[in-house]
Structure formats: C-alpha cells, structure tokens
Amino acid sequence: MSFRPTFDCLWCGARHVSRSPADLQGWAQLCSECVGRAGDNAFLRFRLKRALEERASAAGTGPADDAKP
Ligand SMILES: [Zn+2]
C-alpha cells in the first residue's frame, strides 16, 4: 500500500487524517491508537513494519527508527 492522507483505520475503522507525508499512520493506514498498541497485536505489528519499509523505500533511505509515535 502507499501513503494515504485520509483513511479509515484498517483495524478499528476510525477516521484518521495524516499531518504530513511522513506520518507513519498514513503509510500503515492505522489510527494513532492502533499504532500505539502494535506491540500487543500481530496484525498491527505487521502493518507497522510494512509501513516503515514502504515509507523508507519511498524516501530512498534506510528504515527510520520512529516506529513508536
Ligand atoms: Zn485504529
């Protein structure tokens, strides 16, 4: 998936509006609350990992270290 500025959270369905194209939520398509609890949930953790990879490849740099908001 690619970055989306506005979306419904893939996990809980909450509406989210990204603040910037670097906003990890926009890449994961998960709301801030779900990103914050990715440690407890395999699906959320997977989406977050993919989001980091996709954002990094879009930026042409290595993985960022800001997985936690
Ligand atoms: Zn959510």
Low-confidence stretches: none
Provide the domain count.
Answer: 1
Average predicted local confidence, pLDDT: 90
Q: Share of helix among residues? A: 40-55%
Report how far apart the termini are: 20 Å
* Order of secondary-structure elements: EEHHH
Structural class: mainly alpha
Shape: globular
Number of distinct helices: 3
Neighbour order of strands in the largest sheet: 1-2
Q: Radius of gyration in whole Å, from Cα? A: 11 Å
Largest sheet: 2 strands, antiparallel
- Number of distinct beta strands: 2
Please state roughly what percent of the residues sit in beta strands, choosing from under 5%, 5-15%, 15-25%, 25-35%, 35-45% or over 45%. 5-15%
Bound molecule types: zinc ion
General description of the model:
A hairpin with a 6-residue loop joins strand 1 and strand 2 (15-17). The chain has one domain. The two termini are 20 Å apart. It has a two-stranded antiparallel sheet. It has helices spanning 24-28, 32-36, 42-59, and strands at 6-8, 15-17. The protein is mainly alpha-helical and 69 residues long. Zinc ion binds at residues 9, 11-12, 14, 30-31, 33-34. Residues 9, 11-12, 14, 30-31, 33-34 line the site of zinc ion (ZN).
Structural features:
69 residues, mainly alpha, 3 helices, 2 strands, globular, binds zinc ion
Topology of helices and strands:
Blueprint: E1 6-8, E2 15-17, H1 24-28, H2 32-36, H3 42-59
Antiparallel strand pairs: 1-2
The site of zinc ion has 8 residues, from helix 2.
Care to give the gist of this entry?
It contains three helices and two strands, in the order E-E-H-H-H. With 69 residues, the chain is mostly helical. A hairpin with a 6-residue loop joins strand 1 and strand 2.
